[in-house]
Amino acid sequence: MAPTAPSPLMEVEGVTVRFGGLAALSDVGLTIAPQSVTGLIGPNGAGKTTLFNVITGVVRPQRGTITFKGRPLRNHRPHQLARLGIARTFQGLNLFERMTVLDNVIVGADPLGRSRLPGMLTGLGSYQRDERELTDRAMAVLEEFGIADVAHAYPSTLPYGLQKRVALARALVAEPELLLMDEPASGLSGADMADLAATIRRCSQTMGVVLVEHHMDLVMDVCDHIVVLNFGQVICSGPPSVVQADPAVAEAYLGTPVQEAAGE
Amino acid sequence: MTSSLRRDDPPTDVVAPKAAPSTRPRPRIRPVLLTHLAAALLALLGVVALTFLVGPIEQLRIAKVGYLMLAIAGLQLLVGASGQISLGHGAFMFIGAYATALTVLHAPMVPLAAIMVLTVVVGCLAGIVVGAATARLHGPYLAGATLALAVGLPALALYFSDILGGSNGLLFKMRGAPPELAGLVTDNQWKAWVIWFTVLVALVVLATLSRGRLGRRLRAIRDDEAAAAMAGIPVGRTKVTAFVISAGCGSLAGACEAYLLGTATPSSFSLALSLSLLAALVLGGLGSLWGAFWGALALVYLELAGKELADLLGLSSSVADNVPLVFFGTLLIVIVMAWPMGIHGALSRLSGVVRRR
After folding, report:
1. Cβ separation of A82 and B22 shorter than 8 Å?
2. What is the pTM of this model?
3. Oxidoreductase as a keyword (chain A) (predicted)?
4. Domain count, chain A
5. Which residues are CB-contacts of B81 (< 8 A; sequence separation ≥ 6)?
6. How far apart are CA B17 and CA A142, in angstroms?
């Protein structure tokens, strides 16, 4: 892949969301560079998930714009994102429970299919080619993630760490340009966490990654850029070293002013 | 984005290649349409052979199993695959039957194949209207809306009694076996063949779409709408598509019934029919199109067994008329308690046990 153009992958500007009288997000802006990892952190209720929902078109902001690859996303709906090259993993995994692991991932590859409704109904046209190519593609990704041997198992029969990999494989199989990850590390063991960090870094070689995460070790480890939200506002943004040193961040997390004496 | 679709070997920067390298056989994909067509042809030959072995009444029952199977299979697509529910599928059979009757009465020269295609179109149009209206409804609300359809639509026949024939319905005559086959093939036999041919063509479509991209989309929506949407599946439109296909199947089943019986009466498309179709689907098994087959068999032959049981006990007609219903209901409860996935679920588990031996 060619080195990045200077233009950002996604730009969020001045996004404001109010639920009734409550401002869930006020005037939030952030810039996501291609081939980078952006961490989105903040205490519970800071508006991280709401921002995700705005980006994915689940929640409409009262104000603000979202630009993806220079094109404004206006009135977009969740199902249009996959074709634009935006994928998302869910905090609760949201796997298709009554479908096999392979089928879960093939659904993720659905945007690559070419058949149209008549072909899907009759088995003619691109039907057969879609089946072959999507299945091959899904199997290749399952092998990349080391879960090809459970391709025909149902997700609920697998350990949680493997289920997480299935969810990630489903999100990545269509090769998105922007991957939104909602708390990918929750519930993972130490070894799985190291795997996840490696996977995120590998993803960032080809796509932009946005990470909502509570595990600070992981965030500081993999992120190139961190945005800290509190009460719906961006209180700090910059590389990990800057964010770690910012007293406002510690205050937001700990709820008390930082001790002056600590620095001396 | 699609450039690497045909990439055969994984990229070199692979992390965590824990599984064995890809010596594993890729899942083989047979040409789905050809497989299904071959199976349908075999089934049709089986039905043709069967009609030579049984009497005229049994031939009617075979035909009835056929069109009920189609209606239940359409419902399977809706309930089993896409997770929606319809308590009103009898209404689409009503539409198909009356479309057939009206065409035969007012345009007697239209060939049977054209009538069948026409009823599918009419059924799908009705499905679009109802499906679009109910696309935003979930669970009990969708059930309620379709229930209203099942109750309301047959009443049209009474309201527009000068066109639709009131409670007596419409009577018409349809040609049976072609004259060249007179003496070789009875009318009942021929009609059973025609109905099974029609049903099997529709089932090939249903089986093919279920196996492919559309079926996967439907199952994804059934399991998790948010995740399906993020995978690029247009949730609302796909649900309406399922509803429309399902309605088309119901309508075609109704057309087959009208063709077989030569009548279309409102009483044969009562709410009880809609509910029996759903009950038969649950009894047969929600997970598979085979469930529709077992369900249709159960619907026809359990009713028969119930009637025979009532005769055997010498019950008065007021009691005897309800025995089949009680019989069916009891069996439904017992089977679903023993095998939640219905007859098909029980059979596939049984075959699994046998194969492991």
Report:
1. no
2. 0.87
3. no
4. 2
5. B210, B215, B218, B219, B222, B242
6. 10
Q: A135, A170, A205: which is the final residue of a domain?
A: A170
User: Has the ipTM of the complex gone over 0.90?
Assistant: no
Whether A210 has a pLDDT exceeding 60, the answer reads: yes
Q: Are A185 and A245 part of one and the same domain?
A: yes
How far apart CA A237 and CA A219 sit, in angstroms, is 13
Using the beta-carbon criterion (under 8 Å), do A82 and B230 form an inter-chain contact?
yes
Q: Which residue range forms the structural domain that includes residue A40?
A: 7-85+176-264
Strands A10-19 and A22-32: antiparallel
**What does the mean pLDDT of chain B come to?**
87
DSSP state of B28: P
How remote is the C-alpha of B334 from its chain's centroid? 23
**Cβ neighbours of A136 in B, within 8 Å:** 6, 8, 26
pLDDT, averaged across chain A: 88
Nearest one of B229, B209, B228 to B76, comparing CA atoms: B209
Cβ within 8 Å of residue A17, ≥6 positions away? A23, A24, A25, A47, A50, A54, A59, A61, A62, A232
Residue B138 has pLDDT above 50, yes or no: yes
Residue A83 per-residue DSSP state: H
Identify all chain B residues contacting A205, using CB atoms and an 8 Å cutoff. 13
What phi and psi values does residue A55 have, to the nearest 5 degrees?
-65, -40
Strands (E), B241-318: 263-264
Residue A88's H or E segment, with its range, is: strand A86-89
- The nearest CA of chain B is from the CA of A247 a distance in Å of 37
Beta bridge partners of A209: A37, A179
Q: In DSSP terms, which residues pair with A234 in a beta bridge?
A: A229
Residue indicated by tokens 């990630």: A168
Torsion angle of the four alpha carbons A43, A45, A49, A53, in this order, in degrees rounded to the nearest 10: -150
What's the CATH code of the domain at A211? Answer: 3.40.50.300
Neighbours of B136 (CB within 10 A): 10
Residue type, B229: A
Across the range B189-200, mean pLDDT stands at 96
